[in-house]
Amino acid sequence: MVSVTHLTTRRLAAVLSFLALVVLTIPGLSSAQDGAALFKTYCSTCHDPADPGAPTRDVLGQMRPEQILQALETGAMRRQAAERSHAQRRSIAEYLTGRALPTRTVDVMPTSAFCDGATDRSAPASRSAWSGWGNAVTNRRFQSAESSGMSAADVPRLTLKWAFGLPRASSAGTQPTVSKGRVYIATAEGDIYVLDAKTGCVHWTMEAEAGIRTALTMEQRDDGGQTVYFGDQSAHVYALDAESGTIRWKVEVDEYPHAAITGAPQLYGERLYVPVSSREESQVGDLRYPCCQFRGSIVALDRETGQQVWKTYMIDRPAKPTVKNSIGTQLFGPSGAAVWNTPTIDSDRNTLYVGTGNNFSPPATDASDAIVAIDLTTGGIRWIHQITANDIWNANCRRPDRDPAVCPDADAPDLDFPGSPIFVDLADGRQLIAAGNKDGMIYALDPDRGGAMLWKQRVAKGGLGGGVFWGAAVDGTNIYGADAYYEASDPGASGGLTAVELTTGRIVWQVPGAGCIDKSPCHPSQKAAVTVLPGVVFSGTIDGRLRAYSTSTGVVIWEYDTAKEFTTINEQRWTGRRRWDVVCKFRLLASRGDPPRECPLGVFARIDILTLWDSQIGRNRITSPGSTPCPAGS
Fold first, then answer.
1. I need a surface site. Which of 11, 219, 257, 447 has the fewest CB within 10 A?
2. Which long-range contacts (CB under 8 A, 24 or more apart) does 281-284 make?
3. What is the CATH number of domain 20-108?
């Protein structure tokens, strides 16, 4: 594991022409037979058959051996492969892909990708910005017309402006953050890239200790500088200087080995509120694993120092030994109730809201699959509204040889709240909390009556991997929820988008997904979070189509298929599928991965690319290496 002192900030300069990732090997240490045995022993329980979010054996076989090795060495499988030698990792990669690794691989960021000294101040920075997950502490995922610089009439004229390939990345695990003319994007391998919003050139890049799935949250400091906050998959929280990438502080908020941070930290006042999640439930396919002891939590940190102010667990007691499974492995409980989403702030009530996930092991608890209200000052839980009780799910539940001691109910629904609750001010002066769930419902709760139900509305087919997944968006009149469910027997029937009236819960309009037409492979389910600006709501499909809908009718007014090859400004050729989008001045930014199968944010995507569309037709449709940068004000 990389120590704090070994974290590197790579500044933009011509001297970085020699920056490369070099992997040296000793010939003869790998063999296909060794790889087969290693895969069967250490990997097959999660990949053959595949756990939720994990690629199947066939999908792994379609990857390049370099991608498998990177995932094992520095990427999403780093923890799982920590006890395997480099030679063993190479054997697994070569066995899965049927191809030999070169004795030396080089990954170079060309000098042409870096901004020169004049780029930083060539023109006044745009006022357009998007910070963190929801673009505000209320997590509405709304961008005003003034901030976006874009009207509904502009959207049909959006064209590609530039594309940037993320080196070394198996997945772009985050959505872009935009501030002062810069775009901040991170990868599942732990690399952060800070790009110029006009040209796509790189200002600086930094490597974190572990992979990154959180959005990056910006703060404007009193000294005129900015701080960017994020978390990694080893439960570290970072505060960086946004101008240079220098680390201001870094802390670990949870020492449990499988703890991670998936939702973006939320900044409010003098504190940074951090959600803690875990994929420990995915380890349980192996009966040798002593499931489970993780507890989801919210941690409040001092924004200046990173010092912990309070920590509130979603399960009020540590796990204890319970029973043994069929092979004699000691089990533990209760566990789970991970917090996957960015906290939502209610300043009127001095309250924070989060959604939680399922329990990982028995016994069930009352704060799983729930909306939880927490006092901002003390961290005390004010109320809990549980939607699904007794939801104990782990990877063992999907196995044909399910062990009842590990997974008591084969039909456990796994109905998390993956996306953030949204705090809404209604036109009549009332307020409510709205949230989408994997059960396919949107719920509206009353913050003044202990989270009492105001209304609920079905907008999607629910279930494992379905429902309203990474989040809805609100424009003050409606809430917009996308359908993440994938109809395996009829892929063209997957996806869709629904507008629901906030005051009543009435469906205003509902439109089907993009369908298949000539799309192959076809996977039109809409798992990504929705983004809205006045008159337009954006939603994308797993198979790469980004669509813009009229907020009044649901009619598609613009569509762009990202599942094609791009020549990027950093001299790499990539293809990809869209995951997240944010709206900025006359541009729409999308971070995309190409997942080999339906998967959650940041896990096992093949190739990633950051693209930017310009609303001015024909103008700098793609900025190729060596071409003239965009004119000032473009």
1. 257
2. 281/336, 281/358, 281/360, 281/393, 281/394, 281/395, 282/46, 282/51, 282/52, 282/53, 282/54, 282/394, 282/395, 283/46, 283/258, 283/395, 284/360, 284/394, 284/395, 284/396, 284/406, 284/407
3. 1.10.760.10
